[in-house]
Specification:
Low-confidence stretches: 1-6
Shape: globular
Number of strands: 6
Structural class: alpha+beta
Strand content: 15-25%
Order of helices and strands: HHEHHEEEEHEH
CATH topology of the largest domain: Arc Repressor Mutant, subunit A
Largest sheet: 3 strands, antiparallel
Distance between the termini: 37 Å
CATH architecture of the largest domain: Orthogonal Bundle
Strand order of the largest sheet: 1-3-2
Number of helices: 6
CATH superfamily of the largest domain: Winged helix-like DNA-binding domain superfamily/Winged helix DNA-binding domain
Radius of gyration: 17 Å
CATH class of the largest domain: Mainly Alpha
Helix content: 40-55%
Length: about 150
């Protein structure tokens, strides 16, 4: 996972980051990042598409999907899997975190401790596979939905 040493709101820094990766920082990618950055919560693909179309009216849903895939691969955006099979997206938080998703309201809480570190080391030793990354996501009911 890359370490973000820049603010994704800084156009020059993010453009340079894309250039270093051999990618273009297209208006569509910029719009997707802007929409996610301005949101205080995770957004569905349909919500992102609607908001991007307000900025760039001709943007198709497939373009938003491709932009999100690229942004996730670059670790600028994170994807959360919901129990209904849908996904939601947000700008990537700083540092290593694991999402906990409320099954009722879809609220996402980022958990900062990593219970996977020791397990990853043990699995690497036991299997001979050098584990380079992992993804852990938990589901439950938030305090508000438990009431």
């Amino acid at each position: 996972m890359i370490s973000k040493l820049f603010s994704i709101s800084n156009y020059d820094e993010i453009r340079e980051f894309f250039h270093e990766k051999g990618l273009k920082y297209t208006p569509q990618r910029q719009a997707v990042l802007k929409v996610l950055q301005e949101s205080k919560s995770y957004l569905s693909i349909n919500r992102i598409h609607r908001n991007v179309k307000e900025l760039l009216p001709g943007t198709g849903l497939a373009t938003v999907y491709r932009s999100l895939e690229t942004l996730v691969e670059l670790n600028l955006v994170v994807k959360v899997h919901l129990e209904d099979g849908c996904h939601s997206y947000a700008t990537a938080p700083e540092g290593h975190r694991h999402p906990i998703v409320c099954t009722d309201c879809s609220r996402v809480i980022q958990y900062t401790e990593c219970p996977m570190e020791d397990l990853s080391k043990k699995l690497s030793k036991d299997t001979g596979i050098l584990i380079q990354n992992h993804f852990l996501q938990l589901f439950g009911k938030c305090k508000q939905c438990q009431s």
